[in-house]
Amino acid sequence: MASGSGIEWTEATWNPSTGCTKVSPGCKNCYAETMSRRLRAMGQPKYRRGFKYVEHPGEVDLPLSWKKPRRIFVNSMSDLFHEDSTTAFTARCFDTMLRADWHTYQVLTKRPDRMAEFSGMFAEVAGCDIPGFVWMGTSVESSEFTYRLDELRRVRCMTRFASFEPLLGPLGRLDLSGIDWAIIGGESGPGHRPVEEEWILGIIDQCKRQKVAVFFKQWGGPRPKSRGRRIRGRTYSAYPRYSKRNPLRGAGLDVERFELVRPGRRRKVPARM
Q1: Nearest partner of 130 among 163, 80, 178, 95, judged by Cα
Q2: Considering the domain boundaries, does residue 143 fall inside one?
Q3: Average pLDDT value for the chain
């Protein structure tokens, strides 16, 4: 876990699992893959398997040791809903979020179908939807993947967000119903694919009309801060309004009731690069 973060829209990162698999064009220049290789070369035990998906049970309770409230990006180096994630492990992570409810959690996935499936199990076990202080989000990098917003709307939760980063093309008309927050950003790093102003403004305009809070993270470039984060003379740094109520305070999750199987028996969807 990192007590600070260079990611503008969060305050800390927590990685109970590491590693991932590329599933769409937004994954092409994955910063987490590059960082994993670097950390492996440095001899970091957590990354000895490079970018292969690995669960780290010893990391699950770490948010409980942080007493100062903060926004925590869950799995900046992985995806909690990866095809190889186990239901029991994911449930343990959510149990920690419920017990350390003074924090706000930002859970982002490119697999919102699996997120929705897990949320249904959560609702059955807990008797309620995922609370508002656990934000559930998905990434949409191009118009080909706007269907992920439909899958996100199926997630049993109170706060939803969409990350339009790296933005690789115009998204066209968006249905943002049920979405509370939008992150927008261009790609950065070696081989970055440039973003166009009109693509960004198109999303901002639709967010305004549909009353969705907007956070414009970066233009991108060779480095994340190459072109800053102002657009047309303005900085967008809004966050969603959400409930901090925890209906399971003092109880947590009955993790043993979750199936000890992988969260998803559907066929794996081939990566579209």
Answers
A1: 95
A2: yes
A3: 92
